[in-house]
Structure formats: structure tokens, C-alpha cells
Amino acid sequence: PLLYVPGPHRELARILVCLAGLGYARTVEGAGLVLARLTNAYVTVLHVVEPVTFDYPTARAVQEHWQEILETDTPLARNLGKGLAAAEAAGLATDFKVRHGHAVHEILAEVQEGHYDLIVMGSPHSAGGLRKLFTPNVTAEVAEAAGLPVLTGRYGAGVAL
Predict the structure, then answer these.
(1) pLDDT per residue as tens digits for the range 149-160
(2) What letter would DSSP give residue 131?
(3) Short-list 109, 131, 105, 120, CA closest to 153
(4) Entry pTM
(5) Are 35 and 9 in contact (CB under 8 A)?
(6) 31 with 133: CB under 8 angstroms?
(7) DSSP secondary structure string for all residues of 14-69
(8) Segments of the chain with pLDDT less than 70
(9) pLDDT of residue 161
(10) Region class of 136: left (phi > 0), else alpha (psi between -120 and 50), else beta
(11) 117: helix, coil or strand?
């Protein structure tokens, strides 16, 4: 995991854990939950449903039911459920929020509204491959614009914390 701290920061009372629902944050999510437990921080788990242009059943289900995403029978809902279950198993005070729109804009809006002390995000860009050449790096954009510490980690199966 990598902790980016753009300036002095003294408190860790509210942590925003951004889960994309595809498992990229799984590696760093555990580290964020450990920090939350050690500091007794309140955790908000956030998922942003971005508008999609592909018309296939799973994308359609997510777009039509984004406000109750956890109740859908989608891989996205299953991964989000695992993240929430991990926070609950750690005994943390947690809530779940879902927003709809451009991921960077919605995460930054939540950061501003929620007065968080730390943002926890995974990154598919650390996984390698050609995808990073053609998709935006949401984690880097949030880290640059938020002005808060950001904990991120390399995606990978079996990576120990």
C-alpha cells in the first residue's frame, strides 16, 4: 500500500473507502479497515455508478437500480457486499453511500460534503496491462484534487497486508 499525504494532517476520525465493485480495492481495503479500527474512525463505504454506453443485461440492471445496487443480483453487488461485510466483521461504525455520475467528480463531492480525513482507494492502473493506457486514473485524479491523505494499493490476488 502507498499512503499519499499532501500536507500536515493530525486527525483520523472519518475514513472514506471507495469501492469500485470490481475488487480493485480489496487489497487496500483491509489496510484502511485496520487503520479505522486502530483509530476508532467512522467509515463510509462509497460506490459511484458511472453512466455506461454499453447495453448488456448487467449494465442495464446497474443503471436501472443504482440507488438500491446492493439488492441487485450482479457481480458488482456481490463485491460491494464483501467490502461491507469486512467492515462489519471488523466491528466498525459504517455506512454505505452510492452516487451516480463521473467517478472523480462524485468522489470529490462526497469528500467535500463528508469532511473525511482519509480516502482509501484501489487502482486498476497498478495491475498492469494495456487498460491503463486507455482509461482515466481515477485514484491519481482524486489524490491530486482532494488535498487529503489517500491510501492506495497495488491490485493483486493474494497480496498480503
Answers:
(1) 999 876 655 444
(2) H
(3) 120
(4) 0.82
(5) no
(6) no
(7) EEEEE--SSSTTHHHHHHHHHHHHHHT-EEEEEEEE-------HHHHHHHHTGGGG
(8) 21-27, 123-136, 154-161
(9) 38
(10) beta
(11) coil
